[in-house]
Amino acid sequence: MTGRIVETDADVAEGAAWLAASDPALAKALEVAGPLPLRRRPDGFPALLNAIVGQQVSTASASAIWVRLEAGGMTQPDGVVAAGEEGLRTAGLSRQKITYALALADAGIDYDALRAAPDSEVISTLTAVKGIGVWTAEIYAMFALGRADVFAPGDLALQEAARLIFDLPERPKEKVLRQMAEDWSPWRAVAARLFFTYYRVAKGRAGIS
């Protein structure tokens, strides 16, 4: 069973209303954040390859590399394998990311089956691939598959938002934030949308770059 899937703005609004009713701090945060974004994106191999490309580089650099990958027909498994190390290097991937891209292409993931798999199976399937960590898998589950009850507590923006929203003395570590997020079930992914949005608003107000 996949549980609830976030497919529309109405789904996000329903989850936001539930969160506001469950916790005054979240209700106050929603007033600051305003309507939350849907943030759905296509699932499949390109989504995960794009996540690998974006690891530890600027958005501009990642976009430039992705354009070269698309131009070279290297955004699907067969294209990545055909390009090989040399082709991927020419597109701008580092040695480590080349290894990750080839591992993903060789993983044989059934992306259609993942759509119906339980959250835990989605995470375990993806993290079995070299270069795909828990954070990437959870982000994929939330925004590519629309899972309503997945959170990504290892994300620094979510940790900082939690610190601000709950007026904590320091950012909660991943383990602590994962425990906190249990209170936001079955709408943890909507809580993540709230935290991401709140973080951007707070960052803008504080003039943080």
CATH-defined architecture of the largest domain: Orthogonal Bundle
List segments where confidence is low: pLDDT < 50 over at least 5 consecutive residues.
none
Largest sheet: none
Helix content: 55-70%
User: What's the shape?
Assistant: globular
Structure description:
α2 crosses α12. 64% of the residues lie in helices and 0% in strands. The mean pLDDT is 95. It is globular and about 55 Å long. It is an all-alpha fold and 209 residues long. It folds into two domains: 90 residues, Endonuclease Iii, domain 2, CATH 1.10.1670; 99 residues, Endonuclease III, domain 1, CATH 1.10.340.30.
Feature tags:
single chain, 209 residues, mainly alpha, Endonuclease Iii, domain 2, Endonuclease III, domain 1, 12 helices
TL;DR of this structure?
The protein has 209 residues and is mainly α. The protein has helices at 9-22, 24-33, 45-53, 59-71, 77-91, 95-106, 111-114, 119-127, 134-143, 156-165, 174-181, 188-206.
Helix and strand arrangement:
Elements: H1 9-22, H2 24-33, H3 45-53, H4 59-71, H5 77-91, H6 95-106, H7 111-114, H8 119-127, H9 134-143, H10 156-165, H11 174-181, H12 188-206
Helix pairs in contact: 1-2, 2-12, 3-6, 5-6, 8-9, 10-12
